[in-house]
Structure to design on (101 residues):
């Protein structure tokens, strides 16, 4: 990051416009933070203590039995197996964007 920042700092050119920068940083650090905190609070309020009883969240911190550890391991493996499926939605989104041009 420091090398990239130093490289960009050494470039000649105009400064970024102030108003769009303010908008960007307010949106990123204020509005999105409020939305994220609200979602977490809402989920916690709706789900209640069921979140705290989730073995996936507490298996490493507790003295869980082997069946719980196995369930967690299988859940993690399944999530890793299914993760590449995100490429389908990304490819579809890129196809839609390309079709719009």
């Amino acid at each position: 990051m420091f090398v990239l920042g130093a490289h960009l700092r050494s470039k000649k050119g105009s400064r970024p416009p102030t108003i769009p920068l303010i908008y960007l940083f307010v949106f990123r650090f204020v509005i999105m933070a409020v939305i994220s905190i609200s979602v977490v609070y809402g989920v916690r309020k709706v789900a209640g203590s069921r979140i705290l009883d989730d073995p996936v969240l507490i298996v490493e911190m507790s003295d869980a039995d082997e069946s719980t550890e196995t369930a967690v391991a299988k859940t993690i493996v399944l999530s890793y197996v299914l993760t590449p499926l995100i490429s389908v939605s990304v490819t579809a989104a890129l196809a839609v964007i390309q079709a719009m041009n």
